[in-house]
């Protein structure tokens, strides 16, 4: 059981790290970089990014951050030494905040941008951008912070596991 727990914990840590890097990268570079675009170009850029991000690499890390953390929690319940379990649970909770925030907040905003259609044909692109940009960025910060905290908790869980091996 211990080797499977270790594998699940490492996979959860790597997945959380990928998500933390992605979402914080959006916070400190992508969205500030896109801010200079006019409204139609901003909408077009977000639409394109939202289409290409749904791929196997993203989905593996995105879903893996929750699935692998859950597996590590379940497997950790069967270990004699449960000292890493609270940190693993904390990592899972943070990854769930990231996952649920993405699905409940960012994805509907992405869908709204996509449903608007061709940016050149949008009657009031400034209004659409005004409705989407601020909440999207706010929730991206939330999921970035949640991912970073999840990464830290899982790293500490792995460290604790190594101390007691």
Automatic annotation (TrEMBL):
Domain of life: Bacteria
Entries under InterPro entries matching the protein: Anthrone_oxy (IPR013901)
Keywords carried by this UniProt record: Membrane, Transmembrane, Transmembrane helix
Transmembrane segments: 58-78, 85-104, 141-159
Pfam families, A to Z: Anthrone_oxy
Protein name: Putative membrane protein
């Amino acid at each position: 059981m211990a080797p499977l727990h270790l594998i699940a914990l490492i996979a959860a840590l790597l997945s959380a790290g990928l998500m933390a890097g992605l979402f914080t990268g959006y916070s400190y570079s992508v969205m500030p970089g896109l801010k200079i675009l006019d409204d139609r170009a901003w909408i077009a850029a977000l639409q394109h990014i939202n289409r290409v991000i749904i791929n196997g690499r993203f989905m593996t890390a995105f879903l893996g951050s929750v699935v692998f953390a859950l597996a590590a929690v379940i497997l950790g319940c069967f270990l004699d030494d449960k000292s890493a379990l609270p940190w693993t649970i904390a990592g899972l909770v943070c990854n769930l905040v990231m996952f649920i925030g993405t699905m409940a907040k960012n994805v509907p905003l992405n869908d709204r941008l996509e449903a608007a259609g061709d940016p050149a044909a949008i009657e009031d692109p400034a209004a659409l951008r005004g409705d989407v940009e601020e909440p999207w960025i706010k929730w991206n910060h939330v999921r970035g912070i949640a991912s970073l905290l999840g990464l830290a908790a899982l790293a500490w869980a792995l460290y604790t596991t190594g101390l007691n091996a």
